[in-house]
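$ ./design --mode recover --in tokens.txt
reading tokens...
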């Protein structure tokens, strides 16, 4: 069994120059928000949810992006409302949010 039920990786990569990257779309701020929501909902820790920073996940043109393991489900998002939907549907109820899936 995995240590975490869900392991969520947020691409927070910052590319140089004008290159497209997730961090240009507030990825770090949104990742910090997700981590605080998971803690507030008491969903963090062993056998629960882990939110992590990731370097480049190489899907910048579809970004910002996250990937959730163990299912290997990739999402894009726009704002905190999208993250709340992913938390409520996928992480709390095991239902993939198809409208955000990439």
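writing sequence...
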């Amino acid at each position: 069994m995995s240590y975490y039920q869900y392991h969520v990786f947020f691409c927070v990569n910052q590319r140089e120059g004008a290159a497209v990257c997730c961090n240009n779309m507030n990825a770090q701020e949104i990742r910090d928000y997700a981590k605080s929501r998971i803690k507030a909902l008491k969903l963090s820790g062993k056998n629960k949810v882990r939110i992590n920073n990731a370097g480049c996940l190489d899907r910048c043109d579809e970004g910002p992006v996250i990937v959730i393991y163990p299912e290997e489900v990739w999402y894009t998002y726009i704002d905190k409302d999208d993250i709340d939907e992913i938390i409520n549907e996928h992480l709390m109820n095991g239902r993939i949010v198809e409208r955000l899936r990439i």
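exit 0
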